[in-house]
Amino acid sequence: MPERKRIGSNEMRRQWIDMGMGGTRVKIAVKSAAFVRKRIMQGMSQRELARRTGLSHSYISLLERDGKTVGPAAAKRISEALNEPMEELFELVDRGN
User: Which of 25, 41, 21, 28 is nearest to 84 (CA)?
Assistant: First the structure.
């Protein structure tokens, strides 16, 4: 199992960008409890969040169950829809070399 490494906010933003260029070996993990809590606190259903982000309801459901990794573009859309910084909802997991 990969070791989870907490990464600071500025470094996280740089890695979001690098990921699209194949420069890092990390994946984006959902902080499921925080993700669900933020959505519910805003009175939003999974379907409403899916509609606002342009993602499918089944994808949102998988993310909440931590059953799927998320790409940088989807993470950005979700964080904007929930009005939360990406680092509150997601974390970068170092996959090692």
Answer: 41
Note the pLDDT tens digit of each residue in 33-92.
999 999 999 999 999 999 999 999 999 999 998 757 788 999 999 999 999 999 999 988
Q: Residue 65 and residue 57: Cα distance in Å, rounded?
A: 13
Output 89 or 3, whichever has higher pLDDT. Answer: 89
If we measure between CA atoms, which residue out of 27, 28, 24 comes closest to residue 15? 24
Smallest CA-to-CA distance from 64 within 85, 27, 87, 90 is with 90
Give the C-alpha distances (Å, rounded to integers) separating 76 from 2, 11, 72: 23, 16, 6
Helices 72-81 and 46-53, axial angle in degrees (round to 10): 120
What is the value of pTM for the model shown? 0.71
| Domains by residue range for the chain, with CATH | 9-94 (1.10.260.40)
